[in-house]
Structures are given as C-alpha cells and as structure tokens.
Amino acid sequence: MAEIRVPVLPLASGLHGAGEDLVRPVVEAFRERANVELVAVEEEAIAAEPAHFLLILTGGTERKALAFADRARGPIVLLTHPGHNSLPAALEIAARLRQDHRPVWLSHLGAEEVALPVLGQAVALARNLRGKVVGLIGDPSPWLVASSPSPDALAGKLGWTVRPFPLDAVLARLPREGATPIGGNGEGIGEGERTMASRVHAALAQLVEEEGLDALTIACFGLLPHRMTACWALACLSDAGIPGGCEGDLPALLALIVAQELTGSPGFLANPADLDLKRERLILAHCTVPLSLVASYRLRTHFESGLGLAVAGRVRPGPYTLVRFGGKGLEEGFFVEGSVLPEHPDREDLCRTQVAFKMPKGALARLLREPLGNHHVLIPGRHRAVLAAFRDLFLSS
Q: What total number of domains does the chain contain?
C-alpha cells in the first residue's frame, strides 16, 4: 500500500465505456510505479479540495475537464497514463487552462517532473493550513519594508483569517499579581525580568484562548518602552503548538506554521546575520528559540535594547531546511536543505541564539543575488521538494 493517498476525479469518454474495469488498471499502475494510492471520489469532494486532481483515463475528456475547472477554484493537476489517448487529451486541457491563466500541473505516469507523493504531501499541507486564524498584534515593524504583504494574500490563497489586535490587547491581559518567575540559568537576569517574562506569556496565552488563535505574530519592539520583551512567551507558545512570530512578520509566520504542520514541532525564526561564501556557512541569530529545538539554553537580556529577557539557546545539530516565503503576494520562495553544525558562534554583537548553518554550493550566492527579505525559518528535516511544490501549486499564481 502506497503511503500517500490522493483523491481523484476519473474522467473518461463515453466511447470507452465506464466503470471499475477502466479505472482499476490505471490506479494499480500509479500505485506500483508512482507509489501513490489514487482514491476515486465524487466531483463535489474533489471541488472541495485545495487542489483538484483529475485522472484523465481517455481521450475525448477535454470538455468535461474544462467544465469542472470552471466550477472549481484551486490548481488543477492532470494525471495521465500511456494508453487510451490520455496524454493527448491532457495536453489540450493544460494548454487551454494556461491560456485562461489557471494554475495547472501535468503529471504523466512514469515521467513525473515532481514525484506524485510530493504533490500529495503539498496538497495535504495546504489542506491543513486552511481556515487558520492568526493574530497580528501591533503593526509590522517599520523596517520590514519587503515583509508586510496584504493579509488578503493569505486569505485568498490559503483561506486564512488575519485578525489585527493593538499591543494594548496584551498589556490589558497582563496578570497583576501571582505571576511565578520562570526558572533556568540566567546571565544578567533578575527576578523582575523572570516575572515579566511569565506575565507576558500569560497575557499572550490568554489572548490565544479567548480569540481562538492558531498562531500569532507580535510587533515585539513595541513592548520595550514598557521594559518588556516577548522572547520567552513566543518560545513557550511555539513549544505548545501555537506558532509565535516576531515583529509582525506575516511571511515568517507562514513559515513557522508550515514547520508545525510538516513536522509537528516548531521552527526557528532568525536573522541571516553573517556568512562565509567560501565555506558555504550562514550565521543565523535571534533572541528567541523554541526550547524543544535546543540542547541547552541560558536567559539573557534582549540584544538590541539590553532590556527584558531573551533566550540564548544551542540548537541541536542535524538536517534542517531553511525557508523564506516572499514577494508582494507571497508567490516566491527560498528553500534550502542543509545542516545545523555543532559549533556555536557565541558572538556578543549578534542576537542571543546563534546557529551555524552549512548550505549547499551556490545557495548563499543566490541568497545575496535574489533576496526575499530578512527573516528566515529553520525547519527540522529535509522538506525542499514539498515546499517547492506547495509554493508552485498554491502561492505562485
């Protein structure tokens, strides 16, 4: 049994007959050769999917496919096989859809440009992202000049609801009494900073519960005049399965939510702070990191301000994927598989958590040549193919 199950709408010409005898051998061939289980379902179920897989069984199906595409909103994936003029029909269908500026992907049995299981995972990711309610607390930081897309892009392409809140929504929920100071080894951190971190976490957690948020990003620098930081709170929320992003950055929050859905664990949002082209190494740094990603950590002050509390963690080495979504409509992406190295820079001129990331040849040069913005997210594991398929299917149009 193939691991990936993909719902499909079988289409056949009346000249070829209909029924199980026509579908069964094609489904079996896809299972054996493409390692994917095609599950024939009704048209209504296919129309409700984030991407619509049409199994072109025979020629003469062009009008049927286009009629379905007129009723469906998402990308169309045409699956073809070597017999019964399946491929010629799909080429005609795909050409017309392209003329109509519809996203379309053609995958021929045995000659997939991208493996069908990868497409299945990309569609499953989009399905899991649907209906997310995310909080944007405060305005995006003013320096995010390329990282503040309209929330409409997320609503239209992914079915998200982006709910804005003022920073006062956090301040009003700060517990006044009884906050328990957080533990952990600290450097330059006293009980006041520990209690503050606990209070901010409690306030954000309350906002999440009351408003039914699946994730949030906060203009955290707006807390500094109150001698507060959100670094600890965002780490704790992320570890609890509520992705928490910094500085009101929505593209970075998308990557953090993708990390949670792909792996069941959080990602690490960071600044690409320094690089070594010759050794293909990138230094990533930020003042918060989910504790589930680190082998150890210390509590320190926030780097830029010297105030509040930040997290200086040592991210576990191993394979990771560096992720950045970008463009005005989030139609672009930078996805690089590499390794977090066991070395730790421990520099005093960078944010507190610092990671040395080994990248494949040419990736750093591309980062400099075609940047999509500042914040990038490290996701544990290797996910480049799925992320590229997800971008192409659901964000590129």
A: 2
d(CA 213, CA 231): 19
DSSP, res 370: S
Same-domain status, 166 and 119:
no
| CA separation for the pair 28, 23 (Å, rounded) | 9
- Strands, DSSP E only, in the chain? 4-11, 36-40, 52-56, 76-80, 104-108, 133-137, 161-165, 215-218, 244-246, 268-276, 281-286, 294-300, 310-315, 318-326, 332-340, 353-358, 376-380
Q: How many CB atoms lie within 10 A of CB 336?
A: 20
Q: Where do the H-state alpha helices sit in 7-140? A: 20-34, 43-47, 62-71, 86-99, 116-129
Q: Domain range for residue 10?
A: 4-129
**224 and 298: one domain?**
yes
Q: Are residues 124 and 139 in the same domain?
A: no
Residue with tokens 């149009």: 397
One domain for residues 104 and 166: no
Confidence of residue 1 (pLDDT cuts 50, 70, 90): very low
pLDDT digits (tens, 9 = 90+) for 281-320: 999 999 999 999 999 999 999 999 999 999 999 999 999 9
3-state class (DSSP) for residue 2: coil
**What's the whole-model pTM score?**
0.93
Looking at the fold, whether 112 and 202 belong to one and the same domain comes out as: no
Are 159 and 208 found together in one domain?
A: yes
Domain ends where: 70, 94, 129? 129
Q: How far apart are CA 269 and CA 281, in angstroms?
A: 17
The pair of three-digit structure tokens given for residue 209, joined into one six-digit string: 């519960």
